[in-house]
Fold:
Amino acid sequence: MLITLGLFIMYDLLVRFAPLPNIENYDPWSRNIARTQEFMISTEPPEKVIVGSSMAAGIPGSQMGESYLNLSTEGGNCFSGLEIIKKSKKTPGVILVEINALFREEAYDLPETVFRPGLFQLRKIFPSMLEKNRPIPFLAHYGLMINDKIKYEISKKISYNPVATENSKGGISDAHSVEDKFIKEQIKYFNSISDSGLINKHLTKLVKTLNEFKEAGSRVILFEMPAHPDLVNSKKSAYIRNKVLKVIKQNGYCWVPLEEGSSYYPKDMAHLNEADMQDYLSYFKKYLEKNCL
Amino acid sequence: MLFNSFEFVFLVIITFVCFYLPFLKKYQIFTLIASSFIFYSYHSIELLALLIISLLINSLTSYYVYYGKENDKKLLATIGVLSNLAALFFFKYSPLIAKTFFQDIETEGSIGHFMTLIPLPIGISFYTFQGISLVVDVFWGRNDENLKKQIPPNLLTHIYRSSLFISFFPQLVAGPILRSGQFLPQIVEKKIKEIDWETVLKYIILGYFLKMVIADNLKDITSYLQYPYFFKFSSFSLIVFLIGYSFQIFADFAGYSFIALGIGALFGYKLILNFNYPYISQSFKEYWRRWHITLYDWFNTYLFNPLVIQYRNYGMVAIVMVTLVVFGLSGIWHGASWNFAIWGLMHGAMLVVEMLFFKKLKRKKNGFLMLLNILFVFSYVTFSYIFFIHPDFDHIITFFKVLQEKASFDHTGWRLEGYIFMYALPVILLHVHHLLNNKIKKQTYKVRHFIYAVMLLAIILNSGSPGDFIYFQF
Structure:
């Protein structure tokens, strides 16, 4: 026990005075927690917070401008982020809400995990216990980086279906028959509105939550993330969009529509790659500045 | 109640205090039963009714099998066994039966639809098996005078003791599955000075390390093996994730079992080791003596041996058929879905092949052949997990198609594959250490302590997101 305590104190002092370099967390859940903890421990809450699903999670908060934080939840929807803001008792000046995943069930785990009594308070006191300071991912990242280029070169040579490119994340290539089948299933799912009951229930809850934030002084902006045209023009997306437009009118929220005339073709139908995200952000930021902020 | 929750730690502390308080020592059994009931019913009080009914049926039938009229004993034993099987079948397999044989499962109000709604009580696969073990062991030893020590003449005392045996909370919901003869003789007054603290701490730290650091971190990556996430990755990455899953499931289940052993030892009860370094196995026969030891001991004792004896006149044919049946059933014990049956049969088939063609295979003590054997068994076990992970046959077929169509060595920038390696490494080292145990110098006390201290530090600093124990779903 004493050895553990000694090592713990040493590590905690290390991260306080020689913070670990930021490394990209390797899995969505870890990224969700790291983002939430950053919000949680900040003494001055960010002025603007983005909440949504993995579609909005790709928006780099730092590129949006000063005082933006992205609390979007990969695998979830806007409710996780809103719940986190509520539990933190911090009121951002502006809340940007992505509405794409309102058909999805809420992910209750994230707020419950982050705000676990006891651990929540300990993490505020001991930075070594934060997600971003976990030692093993750090060791793995720097341990592997040394020969990364060599390994990459080897894998390019021995691959008989070479699709790796300089920035490739691997695995994703031109659509094969199996992926075609998956894409068709996605399109079929998005062209059904059998879950309209759930969508309406979520919208009612969303309006109630957003009005509470509005009364507390936050400005509320709703937006839709772009996706593959087959999803954007699907019945489900159109249903959600039309319902949201009514809600905006009734409650006086600001709305950032999809850019007219632009289309994106993400390989998984839903998530923009880096280049497309940069393209979208230039429109998104301009629209926000002109109409909502 | 999860083992890695504050509520559980709180429950253990309170139970520990009450258990060893001098003026409460005559209520030790009651304390453990009460804690077990709280543990089991924490999220759903209705489950407790089922557990209590199970305890009463098993206690009463086993008692009267021993002390009842001779002519009634067989009937009572049959009632005891069938009650357990009926409960297991009804709660666990009704949805499977409905999906397989009924067309109208989507129609509200139909029998098929009702059957799909029957909830699965946590731990039912484990405590029904312990109940059967109690009844059958007593039946087999019904004329054994020595069994009186385990089955006291007073009915209430027997109900009390056998309730503790079946409901003892460290092993209630995920094993190890105990035989009555392994537990009942241990029910005596326990003293705090008799606690083997080194064993307690060793098992608890190792258990939580395997579960919270290894399994909970690996699960965040191996979740990409699920449909539809696996479309994004090359076959190389998917195979690495599958290997990661092998280590995850070991760490998850063995972790739980070690925690159970540690907490059992805290209260003076020695539970049975359930995992004995399974990934150093050189044959499938050896593998099933190292993996989930108590489950396979149960199947061996209560199904395999009796069936082989019953059909001994058919020689090797009987052994082959019984092996396949037992492994098919043990597969489906893991989950109410036909893919689990296939998983079990895959293992049964390899055991049959070994029995028929490699009977004289000897365990290699070292060298290249040893490594080859180990890698072969590990690879097959890992491959079979494809059927464990995907309950839907369509998804299994799609997964194989993706493996074929995306056959390449493309990787995720070595990020995810690298993390699989980092988290699998402690499990690999654990197995290698055991393999080389006789050849390397025994570590000093200080080195071992340092290793445990680092594991404890890793639990504090590097736990993954909390997740259910995989075997809770069985």
Remarks:
- The first helix of chain B runs from residue 6 to 20.
- Chain B is about 70% helix and 0% strand.
- The interface with chain A takes residues 6, 213, 217, 220-221, 228, 231-234, 237, 398, 401-402, 405-416, 418-419, 421-423, 449-450, 453-454, 456-458, 460-462, 465-466 of chain B (CB under 8 Å).
